Each structure stands twice: as C-alpha cells, then as structure tokens.
Amino acid sequence: MRRRHAIALVALAEFLTDRSSYLGLSPFLQGKRDYFQDLMQSTRFTPLPSFGSYFQLYKYDRISDESDKDLAIRITKEYGVAMIPVSAFYQDGKDDKVVRFCFAKKEETLERAVERLRKI
C-alpha cells in the first residue's frame, strides 16, 4: 500500500508542476456553466444561483408539481436526460421542487440535452 501511496504522490507532484492544468479549471468550468445557462433559457426551468461546482440548480415549478424524485425519474426515462433531485441531499427528504444538472459535458452533449428539455 505504501508503494501505491508514493506513486500517487509522484503523480500529484508532476500534475502540480504545470500550473495551467489547474489554474485554468475555474474559467473553463465557468464557461461551461454560462454556455449551459444560455441554452437553458429556452426551457421552462428557472435557474437558481449555483457556484463552485459542476452542477447548476433549477426550479421546475412552471413544468410540474411532481416531487423532484418523480420528475427526475420520468424525465430520464421519457427524454433521456439525467437530473438529480436535490431532496436526495436532505436527511428528511425535503423537496423544494429543485433539480440539478451536471454541465461538465461536451458542448454537443449539452446541446442535445437542452434540445430534449425544450420539449417538456
């Protein structure tokens, strides 16, 4: 196990020598988020402020009164777009009718997903 640990440390040290590999990550992800948000304006989902992650939160009250879990399952099955019900992160299952989408995808993937979400 120590050998694996040492190999991982060497790999991490090598990664850290190229500052552009990690200093460029924040603007790269912000660009992805902004691109996704622009696409999503053509849907009935309402964006909520989301910072510092690969996910964007959206309310769906203009679409359905289903629970976030039921909506996520239905949309995944019917439209082929996965979303995460935010209630999954609450111990008591609190449901604020909010879902989250991962925007750390290729632009073509985001475009296809939003094209499907427009039909809802």
Condensed summary:
With 120 residues, the protein is of the alpha+beta class. It is built from five helices and four strands.
Describe the overall structure.
Helix 3 runs parallel beside helix 5. A hairpin with a 7-residue loop joins strand 1 and strand 2 (55-59). Helix content is 49%, strand content 12%. The protein has helices at residues 2-17, 20-23, 25-40, 68-79, 107-117, and strands at residues 46-47, 55-59, 84-85, 98-102. It has a four-stranded antiparallel β-sheet with strand order 1-2-4-3, with helices on one face. With 120 residues, it is an alpha+beta fold.
Task: Spell out the blueprint of helices and strands.
Blueprint: H1 2-17, H2 20-23, H3 25-40, E1 46-47, E2 55-59, H4 68-79, E3 84-85, E4 98-102, H5 107-117
Antiparallel strand pairs: 1-2, 2-4, 3-4
Helix pairs in contact: 3-5
